[in-house]
Amino acid sequence: MDGIFRRKEEEKRMGAEGRLPPGQALTNKFPVLHYGTIPTVDLTTWTLRIWGAVEQPFELSWEEFNRLPRTTLHMDIHCVTQWSKFDTTWEGVALRTLIDEGLLRLKPEAKHVLQHADHGYTTNLPLDVMLQDNFLLATHFNGEPITPEHGYPLRGVVGAIPGRADLKTPYFWKGAKWLRGLEFLTQDQLGFWEKAGYHNDADIWKEQRYASQG
């Protein structure tokens, strides 16, 4: 009972601070939700593929990816299934870093990105959202490598940075587990859950969970 009471008090505090989106509830756990089975990974053959509306498609090996400059983000994450986890820490590579390092050269018409993951899973975001400070190609969670059930070795992560109301924040499914490719598009293309009726924009503050919710 003490644990439930403390959780409710913390949830109330987050609400008062404007950090708890509508319809969400605080969790101290990290629920596991995904489509398909957890893939087996061989890092000696693993690659991240970049293609589409880019000047030059390319692939990065695991070793090459981990030589890129690292970014650490402290964010609150919010799942469409109504749980919220606060003050999480993620480490990885920002998409903008690929541009700054001269690896990713986008064509002017590139406006959207489709994240491709193992098992053919996809999810989509506008390019400008993925270039924000709150999107990361993440390898670590709270100081440790991401576990297999949460997307090892690489996943997209999007969350809310406290105090940054200027950033668009979609629900957590908009970062793909077991990420294997980024396809840059001139026109939007729905991903797996978006085709199944989930909201394409998925704004946490507007509670855009399903396409029928406007």
Automatic annotation (TrEMBL):
Pfam families: Oxidored_molyb
Segments of this protein annotated with the region Disordered: 1-22
CDD domains registered for this protein in UniProt: arch_bact_SO_family_Moco (cd02109)
Endpoints of the signal sequence: none
Coiled-coil stretches: none
All copies of domain Oxidoreductase molybdopterin-binding, residue ranges: 36-193
Entry-linked PANTHER family: OXIDOREDUCTASE MOLYBDOPTERIN-BINDING DOMAIN-CONTAINING PROTEIN (PTHR43032:SF4), PROTEIN-METHIONINE-SULFOXIDE REDUCTASE (PTHR43032)
Domain of life: Bacteria
Protein name from the UniProt record: Oxidoreductase
Composition-biased stretches (Basic and acidic residues): 1-16
